[in-house]
Amino acid sequence: MKIYHLLPFIVLNLVIVACNSTSTTQQELFSIDISPKKKEYHLGDTLQVKVVYPRFDEAIQNVSYRLHQRVLPAIGDTIILDSVLLGKQHLAVTVHTTTGKQYTAKRTLLLLASTPPKLYDYKIINEYPHDKQAYTQGLEFIGDTLVESTGQYNESSIRKWNPFTGETYKKVSLAPSFFGEGATVFRGQILQLTWREKVGLVYDKDLNLQKNFDYNKSKEGWGLCHNGNNKLYKSDGTEKIWLLHPETFAEIDSLQLCTDKSLYTYANELEFANGKIYANTFLKDGIMIINPLNGAIEGVVDVRGLKEKVEKTPDVDVLNGIAYHTGRKTFFITGKNWSKIFEVEFFEKQ
């Protein structure tokens, strides 16, 4: 890939964050010296992490290293940043003494992907009519039926419809105070987010509202998808994609979106397909392809040109809405108040 350094930074929104901290808190009884000293590190890097200036009397028996709940294998004072979550992560260094005592010091590291994202293009397979009054926020297939969540106060809804026939099976309006966001079909239930109301809605398969759930750590609801098994993913406009508990839907962990250069924000509507998270990028004609194991942005799909193919109404807005049809092995893409939904294939640019 020879042109990756141009377009991914056009179609994605860049945010740069602070990185390696060297301060010692009052409770820490030793300092940490990390070599090499860099503003950011990359997946696969090797670090030498030394315990220096101990302020305790016991002899050191051994030292252990932990990064975001994962114990890192070490050879002496050397660790390898392999199979770890990316983003701003806390490296915890624990000294185990010969008397059984333990002392821990922490440093914040910025960990980035090891390689730049690949660049992808798209091919239009089919075009289908789409309700141009639908301010699309979430899109997902059940067989040939699309579940579509729409936004705007006083106008938000969730519906089930068939893009191949145009038939709408059912449409349910949200309370006027709710701004609808992403949606997904999970374990026989349909989940829908709201934007700033910090409330998620749970429906049965026939769109009968069953219950609500609250957001805990995230301030907003944007996109929602799942891996087909037990992992639910929720975006909130920050650099994080939250992992939700499969039963309570509470945020229990998070990924941070990174390229090899920086952290990224604004992952909007989400879709899980072929082992990856596909994320519309808010206000950009780009789709991120994200590794769900560590948050690395492994690819960027340039979908510029689709918006120019829809009816030019006063309300037509940005790209949003991506659904994968497992039987056809194609993606269906639309936007807010778009008159069309596009069936497309993605392919890597050469």
Can you summarize this structure?
The chain has one helix and 31 strands. With 350 residues, it is mostly beta strands.
Description:
- The protein is mainly beta and 350 residues long.
- It folds into two domains: 97 residues, Immunoglobulins (Immunoglobulin-like); 231 residues, TolB, C-terminal domain (Neuraminidase, 6 Propeller).
- The protein has an eight-stranded mixed β-sheet, with no helix packed on it. It has a five-stranded mixed β-sheet with strand order 3-10-9-5-6, with no helix packed on it.
- A hairpin with a 2-residue loop joins strand 25 and strand 26.
- The N terminus is likely disordered.
Helices, by number, come to 1
Structural class: mainly beta
Termini, distance in Å?
7 Å
CATH class of the largest domain: Mainly Beta
User: What overall form do the CA principal axes indicate?
Assistant: elongated
